[in-house]
Amino acid sequence: MPRKSEPYLLLAPAYLLIGGFMLYPMVSVVLLSLHKYQLTDPLDRPFIGLDNYRAILGDAHFLESLANSAVWVGLSLAAQFALGFALSLLLNTTSFRGKGLYQAVIFTPWAVSGFLIALIWAWMLNGEFGLVNDLFLRFGLIDTKIGFLSNERTALLSCVVANVWFGITFFAIMLYAALQAIPASLYEAADMDGASAWQTFWRVTVPMVRPTITVTVLLRAIWIFNWADLIWVMTKGGPGAASQTLALYVFQKAFIGLDFGYAAALGVTLAGLSLAFTVVWLRIGRFHEEASA
Amino acid sequence: MDKPRGRSILIGGGLSVFLLWTVFPLYWMAATSITPETELFVWPLRYFPSTPILEHYADVLLRTHIPRYFANSLTVSLSAAAATLAVAIPGGYALARYRFGGRKPTVLAFLATQMTPMVVLIVPLFIVFRTLNLIDTSYSLIIVYTVLNVPFCSMMMQGFFAGIPSELEEAAQVDGGTRLDAILRVAVPLARSGLIATFLFAFIGAWNELLFAIMFLNSDETFTLPVGLYTFISKYDVHWGRMMAGATIALAPALAVFGVVQRYMVSGLVSGAVKG
Amino acid sequence: MSLSVLSRRSMLKIAGGAMLGAMLPGCGGSGGSDDRPALSLITPLGGSKDAALARLANQYNEMQSKVRVVVNPVPWDQAHAKLLTMIAGGNPPDLMMLSGMWMAEFRAMNALEDISPWFHNWSGKDDFAPLALQRSRIATAIVGDTVFGLPFEVTVRAMFYQKKWLDELGLQPADTREQWRTLLEKMTISDKNRYGYALRGSRGGFWSWWAIAEEYASTNEWFDADHRCIINSPDHVKGLEYWNAIFQDGLTPPDSINWGYTELVQGFWSGVCGCIEQDNEVVGTCVEHGMDASTLVTAIMPAGPKARVTSNDIWTFAMSSATKNKDAAYAFFEWLLAPEQAISYAREVGVIPPVKQGFSDPELSSGFYKPFMDMINDPTMLQNWYPNYLPEMGEFVEVMVTREQQNMLLKRQSPQETLDKLADFIQAAEKKYVDRYGPDTPRPPEKIG
Fold first, then answer.
1. Could you read off the pLDDT of A232-244 as tens digits, one per residue?
2. What is the pLDDT of residue A119?
3. Same domain, B67 and B133
4. Partner of A271 at 20 to 30 A CA spacing, among A39, C28, C160, C341?
5. C223: helix, strand or coil
6. Average pLDDT, chain A
C-alpha cells in the first residue's frame, strides 16, 4: 500500500520551488493591491483597503480594455483551436513521405519569440510596403492599400492573426498526439457498426480527446489573456485604445503611470477573472470527474 | 474510386494551405535577412532581393555579440529544461498515480501561478533574486524559467504517466523493489518519449522568453538571444537586416531539434496525451 | 526507506544543469579578472551612442586604477521600465543616463543623489552653456541651487527635406508654416507613394503638435496666474487643428497614425515622406541609410503665425542615491563632462555637447548640422516648455496624449475636445502639486539661453 506521504514527497520539489519563489511575490501583489503606492511618492503607502478595486469598477479604461481582452481571447482562441484541431486531424489521417520534415516545419512558429512574431507580422501588414496589401491587390481583393494596424476596426484583428499563426502550432501538436493515442480498435468497432465518418468523429474521436481539449484550451486561454508583448510591439494598444487589452493596461499603469498599487489591483482582478473562467471551464469539461475515473 | 481520390485531394490541399500559411512569414524573415537595406522599402514589392547579400549575417556573427548571446541562451534553456524535468517527473507521477487530498488544490495552485500577469510579479520577483544575490546572473533566469515551467510540465508528465498501465510498476514493487525503483526503472523509461516532449516545451519556452531576461540581466556578457535581438531596435532605428539575420540564426537550432525529435515528441505525447 | 525523492536520473539532470551553469560565461557578470570596484552605468540609447560611451569608459579605465566603469546597455523600448524595476527592486545602477522627461519622476522616487556640494566646488561647472543649464532647470535636474543631474547631450529639432523632391518642384525649404503647408501639398503624390510629411501619430506626437500650438499662441505658458491650465485656449486649438489637418487632408500616409519615432524616421529615409522635423542625431541615421547632400537638406523650423519655436531637450547623467562609490563617481563625472570628452562624444554621435565651446564648434556647425546650431544660438526663438515638475508628465505624454490625439485623428473627437481633456488632466495634476508644495511653481523662460 502506498504510504500517505508519498505523493507529497514526490511533489515536494515542485512545492518548494513554487512556494519558495512564487509565494512571496503573489502574496505581496495581493497586499500591495490594498495599499496606495505611487512610485513617485514612495514614502506614502497607506493601507486603503478595497479602494483600488472600487476605482477599477468605475474606470472606463478598465472596462474598455476588458472588452478588448474578451475579443482578443475569444477570437484568437476560437480560431487557433479550430484550425489547430483541423490540422491535427489532417495529420492524423495521412501518412506520406517527408511527413517528418513537414511536421518539423509546421511546428516552427512555436519556436519564434513573441516580439519577433509581432515585428514580422506588423511589417507584413504594413500599410505602405506590406506583403498582405500586395497580395490582396494582386488578387483583386482590394482596390487600395489598407492600413491594417492604423484602422481601429482591424488593429486588434491584426494582432489576433499574428496570435493565431503562433497558437495553431500548440493545438496541432497536442491534439495530434491525443488523436494518435486513440486505439485503432475503437475505430474498427465503429466501422463494423456501420457508423458514418461524421458519427465516428462525434462518438469516438471527440470523447477520446476531450480531456486534452479541456486542458489545452484552458491553459492557452490564460496565456493569451496575460499576453501583452505581442500587442505592445504591433500596435502599442492603438490607434486610440482600439487594441488595448487588460494585460497591456496593467503594464501601462505600472511602468508608465507608476501606480504600482493600482496595477497590483488590476493584476489581481485579471487573475481573479482567469480563476473564475477556470472553475467554470473545468466544470463544463467535467475535468475532475474524468480524472478520478 | 473517386471517393478516396477526392478525399486525398482535399487532405493534400488542406496540408498545403497550412504549410503556405506557416512558411510565408518565415520566408519573409529569411528573405529580409539577405536583402540590402536600400531594397527594403520598395513598391512594387520584391519577393526576392535583386542583389542578395550576406552582409547582415557577417555583421551579426562578427560585429555583434549575438554568438555569445546564443551560447548563453543555449546554456540557460538547456539547464532550465533539465531542472524543469527533474521536478516535473516526480510531480507528474504523483498526480497521475495517487489519489490524495492535496490533488485538486495542487492542480489549482499550479494553474494559479499562470494566472497572474508577469508584469506585476516582476518587481517582487526581482526583490527575491536580489536578496539571493542572483541578479545579473544566468542562474536567476534558469530558476525563474523552471518555476514558470513546472506547473504546465508537471501536468504534461501527469498525462504521460497516466497513459502507462500501472501494473508494470506494481509488478516491480511486488518483486521487492521500492516505489522509487518502480519510478526509475519502469515508469520513466516507458515515458521516455513524453520526457522528450516535455523537455522540448520547457526548452522552447526558456529560449524565447524576453521580459525576465531584460529585467534580471544587466551585463552584456549575460544577455540571452531575445535580449540581443531586441537591442536592434534602438531609439529611432530598427536594423531590419540584422534583426532578421539574428532571428533566422535563432530559429535554426529549434528547427534542427524539431526535425530530429518531433517524431519522439509526438509519439511521446501519444502514449499518454494530457488527460489530467 | 529512503526519503530521497529525487530519482537518480533527475539528479544527473540537475548535476548536468549545474555544470553547464558553472560554465556559463559571465555568470556573475564580472567579466574578466579586473579587481577594481565597478561603477555601473546604464545607457538606453543604443547603437552608436552605446559604442561611444563604451569607448569613453575604456579610455577612463585605462587612465586610472581606482575604479572600473562598466557600461551596461539596455534595449531602448524597455529602458524606462527596467530602470524603474531596478530602483523599485532595490538594485539601482551607480550611474544612469536619464532623459529630460524622466528627471522629475526619478527625483520624486528619491532615486537620485544630490550632487550639489560637489557641483558648486567643481571648476568645470562654468563650462556649461546657458541653454544647457536652462534646459536642466526646466527638467528639474537643477532646482535653485540643488543639482541632481547634469546635461551631457543637447538635442534640438529642425526640418529635414528630401532635396531631390524640392529640386524637382523648384522650391526651397519653407520659412513660415503657410509656406510649409503649401510645400507639403505639392510634395504629396499618393500615386507615386509620395507623401509630404511623416506625421508622428503615436507616442511622442505630442512634441510635434505642441510646438505648433505654441507657435499659434505665441506663449509657452501652460497655466495662468491662478494655476488654471490654458492649453485649450482658442489659439492653441488652432495649432492643433493645423496639425490634424495634415493627417485629414492626406498629406501623410494613413499608417502614420501609428507611427512613433522609429517609423517616422524610417518613413523619411525610405523615401516615402518628403519632410520630417527631428533631432540632430537623426542626421546620422539618414546618412547611414545612404542620404547625402544631393538627397538631404536640413533647415530651421518654420515660423508660425505668431512665433518661431525651438524644441530642444537634454540627456543627463545622474547618480543613484544608493551608490557606494560616490567619490569614484564624482571623479568620473569630472572627466566625462569636461569639454574635451563632451565634444568628442558629440562629434561621434551627432548631438550638441552641453558646453559653451560646443555651441560654436566649427565641425558641429557645418553641413547638415548648421540649422540646428543656428536655432539654439538664436535668442529670439520661443523656448519650447512643458511642466516637467509634475510627476504625471510621463503618463501624460506617453499614454494620455497618445490616446487622445489618435482619437482625434480617427475623427472621434475634435481638437477642442482633445485639448479640453488634456487640460483637465493637467489641471488636476497641477492642483495636486500646488496643494502639496505651495503656489510657487516653476515658470517657463520665454527665450532660450
1. 999 988 898 999 9
2. 92
3. yes
4. A39
5. strand
6. 89
Please indicate, yes or no, if residue A58 is contained in any of the structural domains.
Answer: yes
Residue of C9, C200, C406, C408 to mutate when probing chain A, most A C-beta within 10 A: C406
Hey, is the C-beta of B158 within 8 angstroms of any chain A C-beta? Answer: no
Q: Closest partner residue to C5 among A9, A41, A152, by Cβ?
A: A9
Q: Do B93 and A260 touch (CB under 8 A)?
A: no
Domain containing residue A149: 51-292
Here the CATH number for the domain that contains residue B69 is 1.10.3720.10
Residue C7 pLDDT = 38
Q: Please say whether the beta carbons of C354 and C129 come within 8 A.
A: yes
What is the band of C394 on the pLDDT scale with cuts at 50, 70, 90?
A: confident
Same domain, B67 and B191: yes
Interface of C with A in 113-152 (CB under 8 A): none
Rounded CA gap, C158 and C112, in Å? 32
Measured from the Cβ of residue A77, the count of other Cβ atoms closer than 10 Å reads 21
Q: Which helix (H) or strand (E) holds B87?
A: helix B66-97
C-alpha span between C248 and C197 (Å, rounded)? 12
Q: What ipTM does the predicted assembly reach?
A: 0.88
Q: Are residues B40 and B76 both part of a single domain?
A: no
Residue A286 has pLDDT above 90, yes or no: no
B33 plus B150 within the same structural domain: no
Mean pLDDT of C247-260: 92
Range of the domain at B92: 54-275
Together in a domain, B58 and B38: no
* Tally of structural domains, chain A: 1
Candidates B15, B115, B174, partner chain A, best to mutate (most A CBs within 10 A): B115
Do B8 and B45 have their domain in common? yes
Mean pLDDT score, C190-210: 90
- What secondary structure letter does DSSP report for C366? S
What CA–CA distance (Å, rounded) separates C75 from B35? Answer: 24
